[in-house]
């Protein structure tokens, strides 16, 4: 996020919430939005489902899934046509405006209506509401990113925010809501194939040298590694022969899971480290028991770049250990076993007395975490990066006065269709998502009776017109099939979804939505298109 | 105030199994059972957090033990209503009461910001009582509304509910093992917001003659629903219609409680 969650309740006057089921998936963020509404802030929700957040909004737009660039361009078309842009911000802080203008002017609201299904007048109303209530914040989640055009969608959000001068101010900005408590931290500290901690490129020679010195080694790899989806594919092709999975359950969370299972079965070695025996762990050759959040010390970095301490409340159960200890012990064994390729490594380099010592190693080599220490975190509660030095207060919002690259660059982007559109054989668009009462692959929440009591099994949401079209006729179960596979599950008929679109929450292994989804990837980020694929639906009698 | 309370706790600890209070450490602040020899410099009074449910849990787990509790006015009122419903045993509880400040009382629209120890077997109050604060102005605004406006008001408020059960979980008077809010007979499961108005009105009905106006439900609500407008009016009606004030008098029988004896349902009138 460019900005901070507490700014929403304190400063934001308009929210544009895109592809985020905020009250269910990010209830604490929703709490700040609702608090802002009490002082009159406006809310626009754009989603193919009329979620609770959409029902609470001042304006709700219901697009066809996969048309984000088109309607975002349309919004900018209206803003420019009506002179609502922030001309001085565009002039002083950005470049590439003319190219952007030329592209978005080819997206008049009537044309956008044809592409997206959003009525032209609703689009105009949204453009005025967003542009005329500053500071305005864009909040988005997977409805923006999980597309083959995910990167284009994100750039379009940035275009809109810069066009209206909403970047670099409290309560504005472009704010992706991240899905797990520490997914931001995992990315920050190098859990990506192309960067070291602090987003320092593995391909940059000076970065490579810096980490070789810090770790006392030579010959660190300067090639970009594989993304998660590429690793699975690599396993299927025999290029990846061993996979070590920590706290992830790809056999439920990855697209096209029949194919994922086939790929994982080709591995010579699959190691899974988790707190429960997940679907993926059941396939593993070795399972390493990890600890839950309550049994370990460390930090979590939240969606607004906020580093916070997590404190151990109970001792680890059974043979379980915190992830960092398991990794260190494994590394020491590998080094002692003399098969390890990196020269000069000594087992004692993997010796830490506590996570605080790990942070002491992180800070000097990670400029954005440079001033982070456990002592400060315990004293100050939290720190938001970049926090380059020990006396830096941290950064609640980014890009104040200046972008990291100097000028903010507009990206002129044309709309592209999703990879798999509905056709005669597969006439519905399937979109997937989450529920309030379950978390991700249900590894934890589906083991909890109180939550099962709320939602016990998978279901598909469908519009009444579509239910009539398939001749549902009171049937309670349906078979949903795509080109990848089929599942059978309960059906809920609801007017709160766009006709032609069906929705399945992906938490449920026994009727897994990801049997159906399509592993088409965004060419830049490698994210799969979980939000659009073509399916057929028929009643089970 | 804190020092006085710590002194009192230290004096009483040798004769008690422990005293329930808030403890602050580097990890944070949480309810804690202070026992003899514990570091009382960690005992704190803020933030406001209800301790009666902790007392109830401990007394049930240790049926012979005598505990103490550090309690505000609202905590003491909650304990009174819990005692009447067999959730705590006042004979086995030493009440270390303390008064709230005028600022705290104003923040809570609290009419009785000091513990009333009349009728408590063993109690002591630290601090000088301040006057009750004026009521929540939203209650008067609400009463100006027509019935249709009131319905629209609650419809709008309850539409924000994310069914976190926070209001129920924090409430010292919500102690049933089987909760009607989780029973699909009353509230359809898995819906967001939960169906209007059953989820909230079932809870409101169960609060009648129980709610002691601690306002914790409203404080914890992530959707900022002004729940106590409903409960304040309910308290007023119970007072006017049945002459009962929850939490005030440990000897007064709750008017809506029923008992089963000899195969018959008995209410207050039969019992007294």
Low-confidence stretches of chain B: none
| Sheet having the most strands of chain B | 6 strands, mixed
CATH fold name of the largest domain in chain B, please?
Answer: Rossmann fold
Instruction: Please work out how many helical segments of chain B DSSP would assign.
Output: 11
Total domain modules of chain A: 3
Query: If helices are DSSP runs of H or I spanning 4 or more residues, what is the number of helices of chain A?
Result: 22
Largest sheet of chain A: 6 strands, mixed
Q: How large, in whole angstroms, is the Cα Rg of chain A?
A: 24 Å
Oligomer: heterodimer
Q: What is the CATH topology assignment of the largest domain in chain A? A: Rossmann fold
So what's the CATH class of the largest domain in chain A? Alpha Beta
Task: Explain what the structure shows.
The complex is a heterodimer of chains A (541) and B (272). Chain A is built from 22 helices and 21 strands. The model of chain A has no long low-confidence stretch (mean pLDDT 95). Chain A is of the alpha/beta class and 541 residues long. Chain A has 3 domains: 5-177, Dimethylsulfoxide Reductase, domain 2; 183-384, Rossmann fold, CATH 3.40.50.740; 428-540, Barwin-like endoglucanases (Beta Barrel), CATH 2.40.40.20. Chain A is 34% helix and 17% strand. With 272 residues, chain B is of the alpha/beta class. Chain B folds into 2 domains: 2-126, Rossmann fold, CATH 3.40.50; 137-242, no CATH class. In chain B, 36% of the residues lie in helices and 14% in strands. Chain B contains 11 helices and 8 strands. In chain B, helix 4 links the parallel strand 5 and strand 6 (123-126). The radius of gyration of chain B is 19 Å and the shape is globular. The model of chain B has no long low-confidence stretch (mean pLDDT 93). Chain A binds chain B through residues 23-24, 27-28, 30-31, 34-35, 38, 52, 55-56, 311, 313, 378, 435-437, 450, 453-455, and chain B through 26-28, 159-160, 162-164, 182, 189-190, 192-193, 222-224.
């Amino acid at each position: 996020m460019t900005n901070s969650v507490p700014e929403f309740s304190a400063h934001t006057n308009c929210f544009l919430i895109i592809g985020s089921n905020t009250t269910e998936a990010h209830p604490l963020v929703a709490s700040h939005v609702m608090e802002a509404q009490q002082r009159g802030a406006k809310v626009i929700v754009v989603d193919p489902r009329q979620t609770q957040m959409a029902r609470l909004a001042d304006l709700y737009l219901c697009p066809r899934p996969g048309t984000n660039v088109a309607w975002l361009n349309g919004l900018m078309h209206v803003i420019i046509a009506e002179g609502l842009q922030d001309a001085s911000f565009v002039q002083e802080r950005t470049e590439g405006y003319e190219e952007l203008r030329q592209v978005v002017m080819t997206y008049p609201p009537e044309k956008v209506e044809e592409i997206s299904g959003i009525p032209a007048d609703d689009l105009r109303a949204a453009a005025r509401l967003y542009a005329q209530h500053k500071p305005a914040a864009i909040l988005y989640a997977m409805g923006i990113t999980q597309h083959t055009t995910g990167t284009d969608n994100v750039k379009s959000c940035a275009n809109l925010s810069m066009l209206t001068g909403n970047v670099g101010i409290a309560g504005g900005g472009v704010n992706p809501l991240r899905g797990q408590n520490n997914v931001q931290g995992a990315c920050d500290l190098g859990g990506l194939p192309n960067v070291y901690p602090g987003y320092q490129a593995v391909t940059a020679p000076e970065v490579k040298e810096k980490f070789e010195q810090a770790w006392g080694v030579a010959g660190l790899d300067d090639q970009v590694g594989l993304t998660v989806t590429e690793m699975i594919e690599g396993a299927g092709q025999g290029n990846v022969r061993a996979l070590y999975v920590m706290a992830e359950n790809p056999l439920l969370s990855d697209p096209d899971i029949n194919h994922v299972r086939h790929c994982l079965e080709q591995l010579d070695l699959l190691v899974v480290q988790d707190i429960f025996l997940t679907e993926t762990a059941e396939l593993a050759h070795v399972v390493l028991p990890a600890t839950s959040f309550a049994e370990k010390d460390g930090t979590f970095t939240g969606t607004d770049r906020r580093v916070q301490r997590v404190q151990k409340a109970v001792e680890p159960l059974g043979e379980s250990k915190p992830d960092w200890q398991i990794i260190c012990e494994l590394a020491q064994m590998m080094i002692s076993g003399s098969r390890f390729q990196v020269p000069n490594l000594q087992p004692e380099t993997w010796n830490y007395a506590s996570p605080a010592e790990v942070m002491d190693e992180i800070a000097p080599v990670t400029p954005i975490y440079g001033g982070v220490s456990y002592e400060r975190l315990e004293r100050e509660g939290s720190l938001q990066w970049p926090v380059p030095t020990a006396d830096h207060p941290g950064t609640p919002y980014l890009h104040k006065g200046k972008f990291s690259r100097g000028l903010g660059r507009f990206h002129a982007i044309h709309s592209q269709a999703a990879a798999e559109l509905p056709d005669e054989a597969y006439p519905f668009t399937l979109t997937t998502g989450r529920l309030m009462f379950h978390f991700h692959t249900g590894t934890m929440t589906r083991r909890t009776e109180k939550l099962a009591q709320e939602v016990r099994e998978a279901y598909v949401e469908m519009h009444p017109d579509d239910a009539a079209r398939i001749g549902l006729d009171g049937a309670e179960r349906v078979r949903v099939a795509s080109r990848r596979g089929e599942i059978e599950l309960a059906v809920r008929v609801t007017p709160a979804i766009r006709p032609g679109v069906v929705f399945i929450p992906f938490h449920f292994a026994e009727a897994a939505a990801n049997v159906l989804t399509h592993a088409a990837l965004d060419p830049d980020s490698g994210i799969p298109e979980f939000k659009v694929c073509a399916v057929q639906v028929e009643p089970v009698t | 105030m804190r020092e006085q309370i710590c002194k009192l706790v230290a004096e009483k600890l040798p004769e008690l199994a422990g005293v329930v209070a808030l403890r602050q450490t580097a990890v944070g602040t949480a309810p804690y059972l202070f026992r003899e020899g514990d570091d009382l410099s960690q005992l704190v009074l803020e933030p406001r957090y209800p301790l009666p449910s902790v007392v109830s849990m401990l007394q049930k787990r240790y049926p012979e033990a005598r505990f103490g509790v550090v309690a505000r006015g609202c905590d003491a009122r909650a304990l009174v209503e819990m005692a009447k419903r067999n959730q705590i045993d006042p004979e086995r509880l030493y009440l270390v009461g303390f008064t709230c400040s005028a600022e705290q009382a104003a923040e809570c629209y609290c009419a009785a910001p000091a513990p009333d120890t009349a009728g408590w077997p063993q109690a002591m109050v630290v601090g000088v009582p301040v006057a009750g604060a004026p009521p929540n102005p939203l209650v008067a605004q609400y009463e100006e509304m027509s019935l249709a406006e009131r319905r629209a008001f609650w419809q709008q408020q309850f539409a924000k509910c994310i069914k976190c059960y926070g209001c129920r979980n924090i409430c010292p008077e919500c102690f049933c093992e089987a909760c009607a809010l989780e029973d699909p007979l009353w509230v359809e499961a898995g819906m967001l917001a939960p169906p209007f108005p059953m989820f909230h009105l079932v809870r409101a009905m169960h609060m009648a003659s129980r709610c002691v106006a601690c306002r914790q439900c409203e404080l914890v609500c992530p959707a900022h629903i002004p729940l106590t407008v409903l409960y304040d009016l309910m308290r007023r009606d119970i007072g006017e219609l049945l002459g009962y004030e929850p939490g005030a008098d440990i000897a007064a029988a709750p008017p809506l409680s029923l008992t089963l004896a000899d195969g018959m349902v008995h209410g207050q009138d039969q019992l007294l």
